Fold this sequence. Notes:
TIM Barrel; eight-stranded parallel beta barrel; 8 strands
Amino acid sequence: MTQLLVSVRDAAEAQAALDGGADWIDLKEPANGPLGAVTATVARGVAEVVAGRASLSAAAGELLDWPHSPARDLLAVDGVTQLKLGLSACNDGDWRQAWLVAQREIVDAGKKLVAVAYADADRAHSPIPFDVLEAAATARARWLLVDTFDKSSGTLLELLDAAAIQSLFARAQQLGMTTAAAGRLTPATIEALPLEVIDVVAVRSAACGGNRNAVVRAPCVAALQRLLANSPASRGARPRGLPATLDLQNPAASGRG
Ligand SMILES: O=C[C@H](O)COP(=O)(O)O
């Protein structure tokens, strides 16, 4: 069954997410951008509250900021197992080498790098999702998250259609990756996602009742968990009409959006 990740900015929100049944607690300060990092102090407070009752990941900002970022302090926080680094402003340069260096640092700290692809790559000036998948496969990254960069724009499905998401994630799973989808997801959007190829649905806005700058509420989280539990994918049904594979050499043929 698809798991639910909830992004929280502090320990109180983490408790609300746990009360609602979140599988993953994700550390994120929404005021600091789409992958805004919390401080190490906040992260340790959340890890104490979570205490192994859920898995713990953290947003760590953007790759270009990483070499001098305060988010590097998260490398030393026990309990955090995955770090997410965005690739905004990386569409022109040779980001792969810097990304591999960051991955090595994260692995050396005992954590995993989540490859993040922005569905609104044009606004983020980031590599397109299929290029991030290709790089993640080459680097043997174990996680692929597709998210949105501009949180004032639409939902994930307004930027990347369900067929493209299905192709991308089916290929990622074939390569042994865990797949995660995010991007202003609403309950209706989640129902329209190809959940059969999504291991983790990641939310903040929906867990706050729609406004990501508000506060995570346990009833909102619980409602999302019920929705995932009752989805056709978790009951074993498979949607029809979606391509099963992605041709990395010819992504346009697979719904590149
Ligand atoms: O990791 C997932 C994000 O926190 C999603 O945030 P959002 O639902 O506000 O787009």
